[in-house]
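As a warm-up, study this chain.
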Amino acid sequence: MAVAAVALVAAGCGKSSTGSGGGSSASGTYSGKGIGLAYDIGGKGDQSFNDAAFAGFQKAEKEFKIGGRDIEPQDGESSADKVQRLEQLAKAGYNPIVGVGFVYAPAVKEVAAKYPKITFGIIDDDTVKASNVADLLFHEEQGSYLAGVAAAKATKKNHIGFIGGVDIPLIHKFEAGFGQGARSVKPKIKIESQYLTQTAQEGGFSSPDKGKDAANGQIEAGADVVYAAAGLSGQGVIQSAATHKVWAIGVDSDQYRQSALAQYKDWILGSALKNVGGAVYDLTKSVVDGKPLSGEVRGDLKSGGVGFADSNPKYQAMKDVVAAVDKARQDIVDGKVTVDTK
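Now compare it with the structure written out below.
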């Protein structure tokens, strides 16, 4: 699985940062300028989805000794802005070129057709079908199922909460898995559920204040474990949980280990992982090796594409919770449990 996202500095295309200056791989067979990373809504610093992609970007740069460029989105940017960004990366010789997030689908489809010798990748979208495009997908519902099991075992009130960033099918998968996992432990558990916005443009993935307000409401209603699948907005959920001294469950990255969240980490029970960084790294490796990935590449529990982080010693000390999550993981891998996506 893999993902590398695109970005080149251009007027009107957002902020960027540059890694090493590009060049050859350790094997000497790679002729591209390096990898590009174009962030999703919320940008770098979300301690979640985008930062996971950046970690894979950095690892690939270092290990393959190639260059790279990453760029952040602008508020309210158009599809034309994304197309321009990808085209400039292609002209400059970046390979692979990947968009971090389904919002890049139209741009990847258009630009990949113009540059058939360059590999493009897109995370969380399966609509772009081309021989030089890798659709980088995940079984988010499986990691969320484990989060639900952990929440149901950890709650003292039989009352938990889910907060989704935007009311779209991708985030419905997180909610479906979470609810199914929780009910597998306690069939009558009460689950608060809320979406921050109807569209990404309204800030559902990029507004910690919205996440904090939603979490405050769920906690005041009685929830003592709150799981957020909301990108940057999830930081507000974690802050609220820590303030109220109840559990938060992070998403995408191991949020217990994120430095920006260090003051809240004692209240991060765990995180439903989505190995976006591994996807970025793997796609880049395939291009460097001369065997570029294409088509649908989907990460699951068995492959390590999704999972549940257990970094918090307080979580590790809850032996019954750990055992339940481990059993659920094995049941999914063995095919004994099929996780809902709706």
